Automatic annotation (TrEMBL), chains A, B:
GO terms for molecular function: adenosine deaminase activity; metal ion binding. The keyword Chaperone does not apply. This is adenosine deaminase. The keyword Thylakoid does not apply. Keywords: Hydrolase, Metal-binding, Secreted, Signal. NCBIfam families: adm_rel (TIGR01431). Residues 220-513 form the Adenosine deaminase domain.
Length: 532, 532
């Protein structure tokens, strides 16, 4: 509690939660007395310096001490960052303030971005399985496979559907507006360039038009988002596509200097070439095998990956119940690869967590442990049942919070997250593209980072909005969320926190942190030699 | 400090500022133990209810107890509010999420807005003298006066200038693109409707076109904003316009159920009909006289007004020095009407407070008291010298912070404001129109209100953006910043806080609060009789 004299530089305990209103008055009187006395300029400047330093020490990374190599890299980083800020203050477009579809080219020209690409970013902890491999690869590989058919759906978005058939059905599928058509025939007829561009437009949210016109609100953005994911889901379920797709995802992330991934997914039953549907247990087994195989293929380079099984949030309670049971059993079978459970899909449109409370309490009632990784508070709608998901996620002891966009409007939830050391998974570009915020400087994670609140930066569904792997989101966080003063220490802390808040075991974390340190040292040398 | 067991519902001391990282780990372990044990549904729901109630009690107004009359009005209010939220969640346009120029019509149809219009809102504490009287009145009255001339400036915006002449100059003024022209002749020539609409377009930011196209960024918005204010300034400086203009401003605010105002201004030297320029001391004397006259004209209805003298933030140190001296002397001469001092103009473009630190420390060095009411942090540019204004404002013991838009990115500044009980003057529509934020649900004051951080709602320059007096901003705060659960208690607290955080003396505040209570009781009766 606040103990007068409440000189604010040395005493920050007068924080909002812990001070009743009557106490504020006492504090205020004491401060007024202090400050209406003779005050020399020097005393003022010293006080000011203390406040500025205190602010700075609170920021994510603010308590890290940089070594001499890091300080030299930091000097370079802050010089190019200052140049980009200065240009923006003079009127040049500031990428975080623009829609990503308008700013992507600008970001690529940024020297800050180029450094961030090289920076070992640690882990990407909030990713969805069907949007982690570049669409270019998906289109040029998966859709070139033999026996692939497509149709356009009857839904409002005219979504694309894919299916593999040795012999296609001769009657129209009820969800299709037309008969299944051969991809290779259609491609030959239209020309590969035209057809593949058409596929890209169906499978991506990207647009060269004004994105605010194309997606005037969150609902419109989500409609196209979900419509874009469908055809990738269809492809990835094919057993012939599944492994090369996942392999390619990890390859692309490692190339972007990400060393560990946690991937959410519905655990789709895979389909064989003759249409047989395999078990979800088998899918998990494939994930585990491929994760391990990839680690072996990149010795000393990749720390691995884990899977977070998710149900859609608009399904019936019975389905969540059986999925939770499946999750418990998979957690036993694959303790090193199966991280836990989540509910996914647009929060504004699905059931809130409280709707499934009986099912979600099941593990604790069975005295079993099932880590949760709930999406919560991915909304602008304060005070609705939707943003109360934050409270349920925390009461259910979620390991991290997916998005947590609304958390700064929930002081008690913030205190809970902090006391439980629950990190927020921040996905800046996703939040912008899906219509939560236009100018990323207004993203609530700016507040979180300024307080050193535990956050990890991730990219959600980067393939759908053509946002690479993790570097674009890291750039937006560094330039748009963390402010001009955030430096290499902030980037270092974000990278380290991504390992610290991962679902890895303590020994896995230790190994991952050692690997990260090795990569970090090489990165410092690489930058130093390039700026000589 | 956090004392385990850190059960978060009962123990919120684990707040971000006061808990070192090592302590978080202990807290987290304790909580995990608590929550992985057998947990009954009922215990869960009780815990949940406690968290939800705790959240609710933190919100501005959350600790107020409503009496039975207030509860009945609240029931009506929350019914109509829920209806408007439900429609928006179903896809109807939600006014705070749109640009005000698009949402004004929608707001006027809202039953919540209609109630807010009637609600006694207390004080408007952040207002600028030349944008507080509706432009309709200004155009239909001030510009119809004899001997008024105008010219279009040579500046990029083609700003309008006014001047009164008995005999106009025959040579072109250097700032004018053309010779001074008679307003009445031009009006006769073009027709009053056409000419007056042209005047409105020159004197207002309003546009029927897409405001995001017309004002693509903050710089474009500010250019038009400043260009719109110039001609009003020219008119108001005329001694024949000054008093009726100010009288009309107070009349309009009282009609909008505002009972007290604090008005910032440059203290322009008034001009007589023969062009003689009077002293600024005289301007202040006129303010004091008119304020008192107005209070007498509305006995038991209006608590008065005070003036906050302001310098522009791009002027030389010498000017600030002499303005501070003038402020000290006016504070002695008009203790009941002269509230204090501020610096105004676009923060992004002017000098930061630290630039004038020697001048601003003058009063304390002279052991004199000069209340400050600094604009600070009206920016999206975190970490720049601009948003450090927040720190200087607080170190200089500002009485309130104008805008403070950036404060949630400054944890130490937040703690300082809280310990000094310094309220933030929140002007939602201004911040939107001047390009800081698009969707008001992303306004940082949503975070402040959720914590019960001291805020007052004001309207800045409402005439320039055609936003009435205070009700539109109150509506935006209630619907867009405070979330769906905020109720009549939030509105009551905001109204009471506007008196509590005013520059009134304690006895004036007491009288104002009594008057407010009387108005509040009538308001409750009026609503109850209308909903019978």
């Amino acid at each position: 509690m606040c103990q007068p004299p409440c000189h604010f530089v040395s005493n920050e305990i007068c924080m909002m939660m812990s001070v009743p209103r009557w106490m504020l008055l006492i504090c205020s009187l004491v401060v007024v007395v202090t400050y209406s006395s003779q005050e020399s300029l020097q005393r003022y400047l010293a006080n000011r310096q203390a406040v500025v330093q205190k602010e700075s020490s609170h920021r994510t990374g603010g308590s890290l001490k940089l070594n001499s190599k890091e300080l030299r890299v930091n000097q370079y980083l802050m010089t190019v960052k200052a140049k980009e800020y200065a240009a923006a203050l003079q009127g040049a477009p500031f990428p975080p303030a623009q829609h990503f579809f308008k700013s992507k080219n600008l970001i690529e020209k940024s020297e800050v971005f180029q450094l961030i690409q090289l920076l070992p970013k640690g882990a990407a902890l909030h990713l969805h399985d069907i949007s982690i491999t570049s669409l270019n690869w998906v289109i040029k590989n998966a859709t070139y496979k033999a026996d692939l058919y497509f149709c356009v759906s009857t839904d409002a978005a005219g979504s694309l559907q894919f299916e593999f058939f040795s012999v296609p059905p001769t009657v129209k599928e009820s969800s299709c507006a037309v008969l299944w058509q051969s991809v290779s025939l259609a491609r030959n007829k239209q020309g590969a360039a035209v057809f593949d561009e058409w596929l890209f437009n169906k499978m991506s949210m990207w647009t060269d038009d004004d994105p605010k016109k194309v997606y005037p609100n969150s609902t419109a953005a989500w409609q196209k988002f979900e419509s874009s994911l469908g055809p990738v889901y269809d492809l990835v379920r094919n057993i012939g596509v599944f492994e090369p797709y996942l392999w390619q995802a990890m390859t692309e992330f490692i190339q972007d200097n990400v060393q560990y991934m946690e991937i959410r997914g519905l655990l789709p039953p895979l389909k064989t070439s003759n249409g047989t549907q395999l078990s979800r247990n088998y899918t998990m087994q494939k994930y585990a095998t491929i994760f391990d195989k990839f680690v072996s293929a990149y010795p000393g380079n990749f720390s691995g990956a884990k899977y977070i099984f998710s149900s859609k949030r608009h399904v019936a309670e019975e389905i969540v119940k059986s999925d939770v049971s499946l999750a418990l059993s998979l957690r036993d079978t694959y303790p090193d690869h199966f991280a836990g459970y989540d509910l996914v899909g647009r929060e504004d449109a699905g059931y809130p967590l409280i709707h499934f409370i009986q099912e979600l309490l099941l593990p604790s009632q069975l005295n079993r442990s099932l880590p949760y990784f709930f999406h919560a508070g991915e909304t602008d709608w304060e005070g609705t049942s939707i943003d109360e998901n934050l409270i349920d996620a925390l009461l259910l002891n979620t390991s991290r919070i997916g998005h947590g966009y609304a958390i700064t409007k929930h002081p008690v939830a913030m205190a809970m997250a902090l006391s439980q050391d629950t990190a927020i998974e921040v996905n800046p570009i996703s939040n912008q593209v899906l219509g939560l915020v236009d100018d990323l400087r207004n993203h609530p994670a700016a507040t979180l980072i300024s307080q050193g609140f535990p956050v990890v930066i991730s990219s959600d569904d980067p393939a759908t909005w053509n946002a690479g792997q993790l570097s674009y989101d890291f750039y937006q966080a560094f330039m748009g969320l963390a402010g001009e003063q955030a430096d290499l220490a902030t980037l270092k802390q974000l990278a380290q926190d991504s390992i610290r808040y991962s679902a890895m075991s303590n020994s896995e974390k230790k190994a991952a942190m050692q690997l990260w340190q090795k990569k970090w040292d090489s990165f410092l040398d690489e930058i130093l030699s390039s700026i000589k």
